[in-house]
Structure formats: C-alpha cells, structure tokens
What we know:
The protein has 199 residues and is mainly β. It is built from one helix and 13 strands, in the order E-E-E-E-E-E-E-E-E-E-E-E-E-H.
Amino acid sequence: MFSEKSCSDTDFTGAVLEEEALTDMTFIRCSFREADMTDLVIRRCRFDHCLFTSARLNGISVYDSAFLNCNFQFSDLFAADFTDCKMTGSLFSDTDCATMGIFGGDWSYTDLSRQDFRKRKLSGIDFSYANLSETDFTGAVFQNCKLQFSDIRGTIFEQCDLRESILSNIDVTAARWKNAKIYADQAQVFAQAFGLQCY
C-alpha cells in the first residue's frame, strides 16, 4: 500500500493495512479513521496530526515511534503495546486503554483522562502536563515516572507505590491517595499543599 516513505494529507479511511510492519515511515495529517491495523508492527515511524478515530489497533506493537497530536478517540487498543514512544499531545479520551501496554516513553501533554490503569507497572514514563483526571491507578507501581504539572483532578492513586517518581507542581488535594507509598522528601509536596511545615 505504501510506495513512499513519507505521506502527507492522505486519506486511509476504512483501509485494511495488510503489511506486517511499518518501518522508518512518516505520516503527516493523514486519516486512518476506521482503518484495520490489527497486529501491525510499527518501528521508528512518525505520525504527526493523524487521525486514528474508531480504528482497529488491537494487538499492534509499536517501538521507538512518535505520535504527535494524534487523535485515538473510540479506537480499539486491546492488547496494543507502545514501547519507548513519544505521544506528545495525543488524545485518548473515550478510548478503552485498560489492556494497552505503556513501556517507557514521553506521554507529556496527552489526554489519558478517565482511564483504568489499576495495578499497572509503569516505568520510565513522562506524564508531565498530561490530563490524568479521573483515571484510576489503584495499586499501580510508578518507577522513575514524571507527574509534574499533570492534571490529577479526581485521579485515584490509592495503594500506589510512587516512591521513585516526581510529584512536584501538582495539586495533591485534588486526588485520592489512601495507603499510597511515598518517600519523606515527597511528603513535603503534600505538607505544603495543606499548609503544614516540615522540620
């Protein structure tokens, strides 16, 4: 289907991608709306302002790729894995990400609101400035993650292990933290939020 390594302003709506893999390709302002990309392997590709609304992305495996300001609303991401990807500015609202794997990468400025990420192991992920509002992280383990400036209104961090992550510049009063684990230096963020002084 793809004769060139770069595509711009191309409409792949409803297409069935029969390729086993996409490697070192660039797509700019392309539409993959309702496309079937099941079990596709994507390596070192760049998608800029592309639409994946209602696309079938179940089982895809994505490595070292960038999805910049892309729209994944209503897409099927069952058992989809993203490893070391840059997802800056992408939209996942109204999408079920409960079985989607996130392994490292830059997820800053993404909309991951109202997701079910319970009991996840999240390592090396940058969630800076992301919209995590009303997402359920109950029992999740955060290792070397960045949460600074993220929107955590109504977010559930109960029973989470956050000891290895950055929690600065967030409104801790807006989230739920019961039985979460943090280090003493991280507790200063909570103390300041509630007007307490640490000695």
